[in-house]
Structures are given as C-alpha cells and as structure tokens.
UniProtKB/TrEMBL annotation:
This is Uncharacterized protein. It comes from Aspergillus melleus. It comes from the Eukaryota.
Length: 245
C-alpha cells in the first residue's frame, strides 16, 4: 500500500520553479536544482522516487493541523539558541521577516548545504553568509531583516509565481521547514519560528535525506500525522539536488 504526499491548493505553494528563481536571483549556482517530491512509500521506501541523488536538503511545507501535533511543544521545551561563530556546526536564523517562511527555509538550505558551496563567491549572499556567521541570533536576524537584496529577490519570485503576494495583514497558513544533511553527516531541522536548530541524528555517507533513515529523521513524523488528520493532503516537499554537468 502506498502513502502519497500531495500538495494541497489550500496551502501556500511550495514551488520548485519559484525557489529556483529566488536562488538564481541570489547568485546561487545553477548546479543546484529543485525537484517536487510527490510520494513516498508508507514504510518510507523511496526506491521508486526518480530524482538526482543524493538529495541532502529539503524544503518542507505543512499546514498547522499537521505541524502542531509534531512540533508545537518544542516552542516551550527547546532551549533558546545563542550560538554564533565559525565553530558552530550549523547556521540557524530566527525569522523576523513577515510572510517569508519559504525564503527562510530556502536560505537555511542554501547557506548550510555543503557549507555554502553553491553560493557564488563575492555575491551579496556570499558576503551576507560570511557576516552572519559571526553574529549572535538577535543581530543575525536584524541583518537579514535589513538586507534589501533578499526582499528584492523574494518579491521578484513571488510576483512571478502562481500565488498572490500576501498582504501585511494576512496570517500564514503553513509552516516551512528546512532539513539539511551537513558535510559531517549530521541531519538538521531548521525552522526560524522555533527557538533554535534541531539536531535530528546522523546519516552514513551512502544515505541521503530520501533514504529510509533520512526520511525517518526528517519528514517521517509529519507524514504519519498527515495520514491520520488530513488524509495525506496538506504537505509539500521540494528536494535540492545537484547537476554538475
């Protein structure tokens, strides 16, 4: 029996074309590619998913009835992150930019995947990455908030997408989360709406985020809840692959 991951029209679109456009606007290498992941086996067997492998970063979107049972308790139990500097294993950023959850998830992926390998050297994003590594979370969030080039790239992609740009009064109806396997094999859950990053576990060199263990450490819990509360609707997954050709 197959369990299907389906994008619902009632939640903000997690669109690989829009994410790709933002990344190009930010000066990210075209070698980084974005792919819809439509379905996973109920037992997390992803051998039927035809995608460039490895997939070591995911932009995940789910509605609140799926997110809340899995993660809402962490807002009160997860310690507030205070880390900064090059010795930190991951770059995590608190979200203070309204209606930019998708942008934050994308940035969490790009800034951390292979230690920022796909960011063009000398670009504004490259300079931003170097700067925020040294900053504690409050100053880091403010620097992102003040970065006009991020807003420009975000709005350009938004108006090109198939969803309307939200007004300042609208409440977001979905939760975007980034999952990244870092260069050391650790899997991270990065959500700017939580108090800090979550270290989910370790993967071997031959396992990516769509392997059996990779799915278990990332979207597995959310998929299980989706099947019980929303019939499998209300989630969307975009995987980041690499085309070196």
């Amino acid at each position: 029996m197959m369990g299907t991951v389906r994008t619902s029209n009632s939640i903000p679109k997690n669109n690989p074309e829009v994410l790709s456009r933002i990344s190009r606007n930010l000066g990210v290498s075209t070698a980084l590619t974005f792919h819809d992941i439509f379905d996973l086996n109920i037992n997390y067997d992803t051998t039927q998913v035809s995608l460039p492998r490895p997939i070591n970063a995911l932009v995940f979107l789910c509605v609140s009835p799926i997110f809340d049972p899995v993660r809402s308790h962490l807002k009160s139990t997860l310690p507030t992150y205070t880390g900064h500097g090059p010795s930190e294993p991951i770059i995590w950023m608190k979200q203070t930019i309204g209606h930019a959850c998708g942008l934050m998830a994308l940035l969490h992926c790009i800034l951390n995947l292979d230690d920022g390998k796909y960011i063009t050297s000398g670009s504004q994003l490259d300079e931003l990455r170097r700067k925020i590594i040294e900053l504690p979370p409050t100053e880091r969030a403010q620097t992102l908030y003040d970065s006009q080039f991020l807003e420009d790239a975000h709005m350009d992609a938004a108006v090109q997408g198939n969803s309307s740009v939200p007004s300042a009064l609208e409440n977001p109806s979905g939760h975007f989360i980034a999952f990244v396997k870092d260069a050391r094999g650790k899997v991270w859950e990065l959500n700017g709406g939580l108090p800090g990053p979550l270290e989910r576990g370790d993967l071997g060199p031959d396992d990516d985020l769509l392997s059996h263990e990779g799915v278990r450490l990332t979207v597995g819990e959310f998929i299980d809840v989706a099947k019980t509360v929303d019939g499998g609707w209300g989630i969307s997954i975009v995987g980041l692959g690499v085309d070196e050709a």
